[in-house]
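Quick review question:
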């Protein structure tokens, strides 16, 4: 008999009743150190007191009005994002998937309004993950994700990650945009080198394409800059954001230049919940905390410390781990033993990691994790590795 919850998830037999900073607590009171943050979401830690306070205050005041009306908290958050980034304008969603939907619509509409409706193809990359909707699925194009769900939305061309020739071969007079994650997350933490991101910007400029960056997982401070593309010194035309921007409250956004967004006039897109007062109260506080002068330098320092400790772990257990990759606090432990075995052994030692493809364990802790907590977490991962190594 089917369960009351549609059985689409491979859930672990673990459940938590409370979170505090970098820690999750189960019903028996066992404390787990969290290197997953709900898949790079709780970036300011669990039950962050400042986020709790703004959410409670907002809950007592006003929950929802719909986008029929002005929402001053939404405007304030959009202003902050515009001020801090390449963007001229922002649309708020509830998730990364919805941000992908709008990014695709926006790119197509841009060329339609420019009198080039035939330019509606978006080039994406193998291993990509942009969400689970019809457009996001088609954008990723992986057999695993789309099998059985055809007909698949037309207008996407996948090229192998890192294959310059294939990419150039796909560009023609129907191309509208290139869509890419600066660091692929689900695929197992593959970072696009800065010079490749600059190369993509050049290609887009040469051929008049829009560059769409999916920073749903790698954005909002995770790499030690507000957005990952800042390291390469380039800007996109359209960017998808979600996960960390709500710190655990469902919130996403599409950021765009005025030119890229020029087709999105009144009535062309909408969302009932998108950017509602509860979400934006939290989003504003998240932005304020991440943009505080000491915050990102501190993320970079701790990221260096974590990386060094993880390199030590790999050196200490060469039969279990192969290497560390990624950037900032978005790291991947490439495993030799099966990643899920190590993850489970980690749970027994009360440390949480997130599996990714390519036999990787994703290490995406809250950006607020302390050095002591990093030390403790890596010690526990070492215990888990040593248990597997001794089998
Ligand atoms: C998680 C993720 C998405 C989808 O976001 P949802 O909020 O799950 O819809 C899209 N792109 C990337 C890179 C992601 O990591």
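Suggested answer, residue by residue:
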């Amino acid at each position: 008999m089917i369960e009351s919850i549609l059985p689409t998830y491979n859930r672990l037999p673990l459940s938590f009743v409370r979170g505090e900073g970098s820690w999750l607590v189960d019903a028996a009171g066992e404390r787990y150190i969290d290197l997953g943050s709900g898949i790079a979401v709780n970036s300011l830690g669990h039950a962050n007191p400042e986020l709790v306070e703004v959410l409670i205050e907002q809950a007592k005041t006003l929950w929802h009005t719909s986008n029929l009306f002005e929402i001053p908290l939404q405007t304030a958050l959009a202003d902050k994002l515009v001020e801090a980034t390449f963007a001229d304008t922002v649309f708020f969603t509830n998730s990364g998937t919805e941000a992908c939907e709008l990014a695709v619509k926006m790119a197509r509409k841009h060329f339609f309004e420019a009198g080039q409706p035939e330019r509606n193809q978006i080039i994406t990359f193998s291993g990509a993950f942009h969400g689970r909707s019809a457009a996001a699925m088609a954008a990723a194009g992986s057999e695993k994700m789309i099998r059985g769900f055809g007909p698949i939305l037309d207008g996407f061309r996948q090229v192998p990650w890192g294959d310059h020739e294939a990419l150039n071969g796909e560009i023609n007079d129907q191309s509208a945009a290139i869509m890419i994650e600066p660091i692929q997350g689900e695929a197992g933490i593959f970072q696009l080198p800065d010079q490749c991101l600059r190369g993509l910007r050049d290609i887009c400029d040469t051929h008049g394409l829009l560059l769409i960056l999916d920073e749903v997982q790698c954005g909002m401070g995770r790499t030690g800059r507000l957005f990952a593309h800042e390291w390469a010194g380039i800007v996109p035309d359209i960017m998808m954001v979600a996960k960390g921007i709500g710190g655990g409250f469902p919130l996403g956004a599409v950021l765009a230049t005025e030119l890229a967004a020029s087709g999105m006039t009144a009535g062309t897109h909408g969302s009932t919940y998108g950017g509602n007062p509860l979400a934006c109260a939290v989003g504003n506080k998240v932005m304020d905390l991440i943009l505080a002068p000491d915050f990102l330098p501190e993320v970079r320092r701790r990221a260096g410390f974590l990386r060094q400790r993880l390199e030590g772990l790999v050196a200490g257990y060469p039969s279990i781990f192969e290497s560390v990759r990624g950037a900032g606090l978005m790291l991947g432990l490439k495993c030799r033993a099966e990643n899920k075995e190590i993850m489970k052994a980690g749970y027994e030692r009360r440390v949480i990691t997130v599996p990714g493809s390519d036999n990787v364990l994703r290490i995406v802790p809250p950006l607020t994790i302390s050095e002591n907590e990093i030390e403790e977490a890596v010690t526990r991962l070492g215990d888990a590795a040593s248990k597997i190594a001794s089998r």
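Why it works: The two ends are 37 Å apart (CA to CA). The chain has twelve helices and 17 strands.
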